[in-house]
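Design request, tokens follow.
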């Protein structure tokens, strides 16, 4: 595994960084998260508590030995400094007649906000002969994540607020989740995910977020408008027969982390820019 450039650079004293002012004090701050320690969902072991380094190790382990795997690792600089960091990871293997395709992706905040994940996704496209049963998939999802907030429209949705999964009165067991998953969302249940102040349901926010670039800037307004702190969705689409699953898409979004990380990053970038271009101090002439 390649040594991370970020780890190397942060191990050097600030005075040794060629483009950063010696007075610039870089102290990472961990942003707030939607998920509490006891209820922190993960996808293949990657949660929004994962650093980019930890997540990349899982990516590389998952795709090890898969010769047709493609990788995309985005490593920009932080502001005007020499500090590079992992902003996004995407590894994928294309589907084939006898091979299940897989895409694993994640986005991370800057090193100022501890380079933590705020978006994680895994998409599986099953080869026809490898399509799992709908019953098996729903059972595995509920065994791992627990009872969902709402089920329907091919999704199991887990909505988080104040560190816990939100309940809107629906009590899903495996049998009821199986019956509901390919039905439209119950509007009487879905409306309970809105609030009286106009903040939108996390189901709608999650769908809109998936259509955007997975950068903090692109997703920040959606995060601020969500009536929740975070969300996990699992989408199961029918396969060759209705009792089989053709694709499974897992998506984890930490809206609270996005908002917190964006604020930390803004302050850090402003401080870094001020170090490079300090505001001239006016002096009072001697009278």
């Amino acid at each position: 595994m390649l040594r991370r450039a970020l780890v190397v650079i942060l191990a050097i004293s600030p005075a040794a960084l060629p483009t950063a002012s010696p007075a610039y004090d870089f102290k990472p701050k961990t942003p707030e998260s939607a998920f509490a320690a006891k209820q922190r969902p993960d996808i293949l072991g990657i949660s929004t508590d994962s650093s980019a380094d930890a997540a990349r190790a899982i990516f590389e382990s998952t795709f090890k030995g898969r010769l047709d795997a493609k990788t995309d690792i985005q490593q920009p600089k932080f502001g005007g400094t020499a500090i590079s960091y992992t902003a996004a990871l995407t590894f994928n293997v294309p589907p084939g007649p006898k091979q299940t395709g897989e895409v694993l992706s994640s986005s991370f905040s800057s090193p100022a906000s501890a380079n933590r994940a705020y978006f994680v996704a895994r998409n599986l496209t099953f080869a026809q002969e490898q399509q799992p049963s709908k019953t098996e998939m729903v059972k595995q999802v509920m065994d791992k994540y627990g009872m969902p907030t709402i089920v329907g429209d091919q999704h199991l949705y887990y909505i988080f607020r104040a560190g816990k999964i939100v309940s809107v009165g629906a009590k899903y067991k495996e049998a009821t989740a199986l019956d509901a998953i390919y039905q439209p969302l119950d509007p009487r249940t879905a409306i309970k995910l809105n609030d009286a102040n106009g903040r939108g349901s996390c189901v709608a926010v999650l769908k809109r977020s998936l259509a955007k670039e997975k950068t903090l800037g692109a997703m920040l307004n959606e995060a601020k408008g969500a009536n929740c702190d975070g969300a996990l969705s699992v989408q199961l689409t029918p396969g060759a027969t209705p009792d089989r699953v053709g694709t499974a898409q897992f998506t984890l979004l930490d809206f609270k982390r996005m908002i917190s990380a964006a604020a930390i990053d803004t302050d850090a970038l402003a401080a870094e820019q001020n170090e490079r271009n300090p505001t001239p101090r006016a002096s009072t002439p001697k009278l």
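Comment from the thread starter after seeing the answer: thanks! Residues 5-24+36-273 form one domain.
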